[in-house]
Specification:
Number of strands: 3
Helix content: 25-40%
Structural class: alpha+beta
CATH topology: GMP Synthetase, Chain A, domain 3
Number of helices: 2
Strand content: 15-25%
Distance between the termini: 32 Å
Order of helices and strands: HEEHE
Largest sheet: 3 strands, mixed
Radius of gyration: 13 Å
């Protein structure tokens, strides 16, 4: 079965790890929206904390990884939603005792 371009991008983003937590941005639920169009893509992500010291580097890594997977430019916007552990994929926080 062929994956959609959105699924390919999300799968590629599993390579981007939050260095403080050790889980990827998809598992953590940091990717909040992904829209594709003819000119490129727009992705909205959030950080685990508003002043995450790794935020700028993670945003750039998400942009580069998504662009490579999409085959065209991806604009990454920082969302204003506050992260909480309930946004994580089911079972992702088990090693941390979050669930």
């Amino acid at each position: 079965m062929l994956a959609t371009k959105e699924e390919e991008i999300l799968e590629a983003l599993r390579e981007v790890i939050d260095p403080e937590i050790g889980l990827n941005v998809v598992e953590l639920g940091l990717i909040r929206n992904l829209e594709l169009n003819d000119q490129g893509a727009r992705l909205t992500m959030i950080l685990t904390t508003p002043f995450c010291p790794y935020g700028p580097a993670m945003i750039e890594q998400v942009r580069m990884t998504a662009t490579r997977a999409a085959g065209h430019p991806v604009n990454v916007e920082l969302g204003t939603e506050l992260w909480d552990p309930s946004m994580m994929e089911e079972g992702a926080g088990g090693d941390w005792g979050l669930y």
